[in-house]
Amino acid sequence: MHETLPGRAHFHIERTSKESPGQPRQRVFGFTALKQEDKEQDGIAILHQYLLTISQHEVFQTFFSRLSPYGITPGQYGVLSCLWKNGPTTPKEIARALRLENSTVSGILDRMQKQDLIDRVVDPNNRRSILVIATPSAMAMKDDVLKAVDELNVEILQDFTPQEKDALMESLRRIGRIDEEE
């Protein structure tokens, strides 16, 4: 399949199969720029963007399938991770920690409350504020979910040397503008 990015470059994508059937993966194997003088610059930028997008998609899909036995999505895992780490938290603090819009977090919280994973309670220190808390059912799955996430991280990085893992983590921190403390 050929795709053209607006006013930029033209590249070809080949669909291939992973080792497990039914799990398609896209791989770029060639591209040409529309303007010769922009070929190198545009091609590299497009390739970088494409590789980041495909890598993020691949990890997200794998993450999604690993979390599905627990009935949660990657976004819901992010919320639970905040609650497991910090205890009762405001929706605004969750949005800030996950780098999501407040409205996005609100939708995630609505779905999680319907699933009995979280509850919203009035903050006893500020009655105008709402706190999000993990329910007993969310706390019951904590160890299993964290184990599944740890196993996924090991699997995704298994082909990397320790130096490559360090370089990847540093690169991702720089791209995401994330301090090591976060």
Radius of gyration: 20 Å
What is the helix/strand order?
EEEHHHHEEHH
- The helix/strand class is alpha+beta
Report the average pLDDT across residues: 81
Main sheet summary: 3 strands, antiparallel
How widely separated are the two ends? 40 Å
Could you please describe the fold and organization of this structure?
With 182 residues, this protein is an alpha+beta fold. The chain has helices at 39-67, 74-86, 91-98, 102-114, 136-156, 162-176, and strands spanning 2-4, 9-17, 24-33, 118-123, 126-134. A 3-stranded antiparallel β-sheet has the order 1-2-3, with helices on one face. Helix 1 crosses helix 5 (136-156) and helix 3 packs across helix 4. The longest helix is centred in the first third of the chain and has 29 residues, at 39-67. Mean pLDDT is 81; it is low at 1-37.
Key traits:
6 helices; globular; 182 residues; two-stranded antiparallel sheet; three-stranded antiparallel β-sheet; alpha+beta; 20% strand
Would you kindly provide a brief summary of this structure?
The protein is of the alpha+beta class and about 180 residues long.
